[in-house]
């Protein structure tokens, strides 16, 4: 049995970062308050902006936190990863991350987080620190490094362009702050844009003109309906639209505006099921690698946050950005 003194020390090395403006947290602000009341020694910080998140992580680092629970959405996790993976990170050794589903889409949490009641999961972590009972599982995932001209480097796990950008913009403009905000709005947005893709309503789905350079292999400029890249093993609803066979941590997929047989091909490729017609000759590309350079001028999305290139002289670059350790209990 762990002694009270060492139990208190162990719990005090766990930090909780909460973004109260993330989707689920905004709708249920009391979700973790009961657990916090039971364990007052937990070090907690609330943050909503990148500056506040940086200050919170600096505070955690100075206190020697080695497990950081992030209670927020994909954008909050992206901000945390950007600070932890940057050369100027305040941590000598990056903390292990526990991702709680506090956001709207929670795509990252769906892959590396914990299913079920998030409050109970965090309580199990604290009980493990207090008593040593329970089993901690650790997951390693590559992190994606994004370089957009005119912006500081960002680190995350899901990148999109083309209709991904259009869908993100549509959700934030029309659904985010009304009765369809949250999961229903996400479902409506995905359904609307999938229908636009299948019907090839290009004025709605959005086209992005770009060249794609994957690890030195250049694809000539074309109009693309969709480009996405990720280091996650699975996306929202269990989607896994990557079928490349090369070795590499960055998985990417592109679909051109002239892609053929889309109503029949997309349902298979979306779940990593190859078809005879889902080929490059028919406008479908997927590969794994270490770096992708995109020459484009349209906005792009990283974990739900949008960035617009400020120059056409330099490409938007996706690179392998290191590893992050996530824990489950």
TrEMBL record:
The keyword Mitochondrion does not apply. It comes from the Bacteria. GO terms for molecular function: kinase activity. Residues 9-142 form the DAGKc domain. The keyword Mitochondrion does not apply. Keywords: Kinase, Transferase. It holds the Pfam family DAGK_cat. This is Diacylglycerol kinase family enzyme. It comes from Desulfopila aestuarii DSM 18488.
